[in-house]
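Researcher: Good morning. I'm working through a list of sequences from a screen, and I'd like to move beyond sequence-only analysis. For each chain I'm collecting a predicted structure so we can compare shapes side by side. This is the next one on the list. No need for commentary yet; just the structure.
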Amino acid sequence: MHAFLLTAALLSSNSDAPTILKAIDSICGDTWCEGDFGFHFQNVVLDASTNSTTVFFTIGINDPVDITQIQPIQFQASCTVAGYSTFTTIMQSDDSLTQEFYARLTECIQDVEDKLSKF
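Model: Good morning. Structure tokens for this chain:
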């Protein structure tokens, strides 16, 4: 699992973040969110200086033993995808991710899920 800190400089330079975040939320229901984990995608930071994009999210695990549990166990996580730092490398259109970025983000999210499965 990745800890994270956000700097004001990175946050202020991401005017495309809301559109990218909306595309990630849209695809979530048909992909990662179909599994055993719940997701809440919080922020996307495009960093030209490192040529990477970091997606910050909360991932929750429901307790399969206690079906009355209202709040899942939640963890803060992030995925940094190297080689993608512009809107055009991340987005195919205004509402969908490129296949390449989607595949790389999926790999990272699966790694986070695998780590949490061992928890």
